[in-house]
User: Fold this.
Amino acid sequence: MLELPGVWRRHGAAVPEVPLVMDSPHSGTSYPADYRHAAPLATLRRAEDTHVDVLFGDAPRFGATRLDALFPRSYIDVNRALDDLDPELLDGPWPEPLAPGTKTTLGIGLVSRLCGAMVPIYDRPLAVDEVRGRIDRCWRPYHTELERLIEATHARFGAVFHVNCHSMPAVGADGMALDAGRPRADFVLGDRDGTTCAEAFVGTAERFLAARGYDVRRNDPFKGVEIVRKFGRPGAGRHSLQIEINRRLYMNEDTREPNDGFARLRAALAGLVECLAGFARDRAAVTARTAP
Ligand SMILES: [Zn+2]
Assistant:
């Protein structure tokens, strides 16, 4: 295990033993002293993908390497592009052009404005330098290590399969989710409508989970955001898939404590990692044999 304190922790080898890299960008629970939020911590924590790092804790046993963010997603979100920032949050002009997306205008962007059901996170404007500090201390080092892992794996095996791991509330919050009030599937696999990984990769994950009785949807309502968009280039041997796990399968969403389903789900996810590790090894071997 290697750690950049407060920023990321890596489980598994610097270059994995199989061409499978995983990351959990939203399971961080170390709230920085300089956060200075006004919203209650319990409400803020609803933005966390709590326990996703532990649910995929078996990944290194199957030769994969996993990277976890340690800071909370609501402090700064590594799954958003640097220009996906709401200028309304700031006390002054941002020095570069901004392109806030739909979710950002709903309050959940690179730096979120709202949490829970429309609760303002701050009672003050954020200083431009404060946001720049979060980018430099958290966003950049996380992306640097994830990119290094993905590129080093590709260099060793000729292909890399990456799984970007998340969890979702059982039902989207009113006013903040695009599918507010509609119950969600057990799992949502996101490949940005077939553009970030090979069909066989997402299909393998889908069949594995469906065979265990889980209800699985693709790209509905989550297609994948910045991380799979940035790293998923299947034509260049870089495959990136987002997995969203329904939180009701493993925790009480009010107390955030694991529920009775936790152990069963963790065992199922260990099986999924083993299956995807085998798939990645076999596919990379074929790629290596057929390379010119
Ligand atoms: Zn997430």
